[in-house]
Design goal:
The structure is a single chain. 22% of the residues are buried. The protein contains 5 helices and 4 strands. The two termini are 16 Å apart. Helix 3 packs antiparallel against helix 4.
Length: 180
């Protein structure tokens, strides 16, 4: 009994070299596939671009949260010495801004680091203890010598038979359906 496309997560193909994976990813993008993912034993340069990975907004959010941290602690310090506790010590000015730069720097780093860390977790949908690709029998990182391309079944151009033919022509070592 063949699984229906509703319970199929996609089609995964194993390739022997990163070059073959890059070629298959490029061909899939040329054919209009947009829901692609790749699994490799080590980073492959240029693969993200071939898969159609966009730019992240995380650096912008990190910068904004760092600025909020800096100006927030600066406002808190100015409030505390000018409004809440205006204590004149030896005729010095109440708000001596050079002393406020060190806590400002620290809160900039703290705000940016928290945003970068939690943004990375949210952006990568982590922690994720299960992925449907683990159901594929040919998928194994134990050997570390295969490069996998996954085309999701919710892709608008997904057609199981045509996709199998295309991947077979691209010298895939194994082609397998991934069940949910």
């Amino acid at each position: 009994m063949k699984p229906s496309e509703t319970e199929t997560h996609g089609l995964i193909a194993a390739f022997a070299t990163p070059e073959a994976l890059m070629k298959a990813a490029g061909r899939a993008r040329e054919r209009g596939f947009t829901r692609l993912d790749a699994f490799t034993p080590y980073p492959v340069e240029g693969l993200v671009e071939k898969l159609g990975g966009g730019t992240s907004r995380l650096p912008v959010y990190t910068f904004i949260s760092g600025a909020i941290g800096f100006f927030g602690i600066l406002a808190l310090q100015f409030y505390s010495v000018l409004i809440a506790y205006p204590i004149d010590v030896g005729g010095r000015p109440l708000a001596s801004w050079p002393a406020f730069l060190v806590p400002g720097f620290e809160c900039t780093i703290l705000g940016a680091a928290f945003t970068a860390f939690f943004g990375m977790l949210v952006g990568n949908r982590l922690p994720r203890l299960y992925h449907p690709v683990f159901n594929a029998q040919s998928f194994s990182f134990a050997g570390g010598d295969r490069f996998y391309l996954l085309i999701a079944s919710d892709d608008p151009r997904y057609d199981r038979t045509k996709l199998r033919r295309m991947l077979h022509r691209l010298d895939a070592l194994a082609i397998e359906e991934v069940l949910e």
